Amino acid sequence: MLVVLPILVNKDVCVCVCVLQVIGCFVEIVVFTIMGCIVNAGSLLRYVMLILMVFVYCCDCFNNVSKKYLKMNKALFNEVKARVRDLEQVTAVGYINTI
Question: Is the whole-model pTM more than 0.70?
Fold first, then answer.
């Protein structure tokens, strides 16, 4: 790593060097993480597949539930709308109760 003495250079150069060191640190973290994934691919694949299977199962389950809910909600709304007399007049914009 690069070490800069703040006495010998101005403040802007020190900030720039510090930012570059932080970026370099993040690059090293990414590179070493990728290397670890490549070396341990066998044990990593188990967890990746488990997460993928859970995600697919949840999407399938909740997608079907939401479709059934919307279908039931539509049927209930139509039934309530048919049973309540003068519903469209009451829910109309600008309705004034004259009772």
Answer: no
Amino acid at 82: A
Q: What single-letter DSSP state applies at residue 38?
A: H
Euclidean distance between CA atoms 45 and 56, whole angstroms: 16
Give one DSSP letter per residue of 41-99, joined into a string.
HHHHHHHHHHHHHHHHHHHHHHHHHHHHHHHHHHHHHHHHHHHSTTHHHHTSTT-----
Look up residue 68 and give its two tokens. 């059934």
d(CA 18, CA 2): 9
At 42-89, the pLDDT tens digits run: 888 899 999 999 999 888 877 778 788 888 988 888 888 777 776 676
Which residue is associated with the tokens 């070396």?
39
Report helix, strand or coil for 10: coil
